[in-house]
UniProtKB/TrEMBL annotation:
Keywords tagged on the record: Acetylation, Cytoplasm, Metal-binding, NADP, Oxidoreductase, RNA-binding, Zinc
This protein's name: Zinc-type alcohol dehydrogenase-like protein
Pfam families to which the protein is assigned, alphabetical: ADH_N (PF08240), ADH_zinc_N (PF00107)
Lineage: Bacteria, Pseudomonadati, Pseudomonadota, Alphaproteobacteria, Acetobacterales
Coiled coil: none
Cellular component GO terms held in the UniProt record: cytoplasm
Gene3D superfamilies for this protein: Medium-chain alcohol dehydrogenases, catalytic domain, NAD(P)-binding Rossmann-like Domain
Keyword Cytoplasm: yes
Family named by the database record: Belongs to the zinc-containing alcohol dehydrogenase family. Quinone oxidoreductase subfamily.
Amino acid sequence: MKAIAYTHCLPVTDANSLQEMDLPDPAAPTGRDVLVEVHAVSVNPVDAKQRAKSDPKGTPRILGFDGAGVVRAVGPDAVLFQPGDQVFWAGAINRPGSNAELQLVDERVVGRMPSSLTFAEAAAMPLTTLTAWEGLFDRLRIARDPAPTGEAVLIVGGAGGVGSIAIQLARKLSGMTVITTASRPETRDWCMDLGAHHVIDHREDMAAQVKALKLRVSRIFSTTNTAANWPVLCALLAPQGMICAIDEGSALDMSLLRAKSAGFHWEGMFARSLFQTPDMEAQHRLLTEAAALLDAGTLRTTLTRHLGPITAENLRAGHALVEGGTMIGKAVAEGWV
């Protein structure tokens, strides 16, 4: 099968950082695995981080943590899908990824693809939707109730992939006032268009800007720069509030939360698949519900950049975009040449 892989950690500017290869097809699916034919993939920060830091020491490693495609075969214990089903998924960090014509994925982390979306539009969604959904509703325990609560959630990094879906989920499925951060006119407009009630500039005094809104921020979902922003996040969080973060960073001073009896939670979207948790199938149900919301028009795809076919050159361009730190929404590659 055709695949895009890497064998050593190299800068994205190096033509060998991602290479087109002809690799063996995956084995026939066993257990609850499904074999999918990949039609479209998106690029996430985790792709770039793995390529730059996780050295496979010469053995080809296939990245790709978002995909949309068609089921070609199912394992003997699979019960959720049949050959021919159109699906979307984020996969697992400890298995070969979606940057290949064929991929084995556990059906418990796969969802039926929204019928109203193209493969490219669908491929933009799984990882960020799972991360945002789990962060907001599982970790921060925001109620799934549109009735106004009088409280606010602050989403740090609203224009990124996770922020772009988190704004929609918080606005459409909860009764909280949605505040997010953006520093450029185009990112501010994007966040407002997705449903944010207020957008503040993370390059300016965030605490002063939030104070001016006269809102009680009881929940904070930090998608970027958590360590750098940590003192101000703790300062503006309401007593007995909760912060959830997804980005890697240095140690955080938890003592800043003590006086407020506040809490902190990491969100790691791959935890369920990595540790084979008993509730692993929750991600299938989550993606299925998200697909229904996308088909109903309640949510919308966050695809903003179509990279062209799935080639090493185009995926390197996608990695460069996410490494640049100014990407709005998601970049997707579609089809094989």
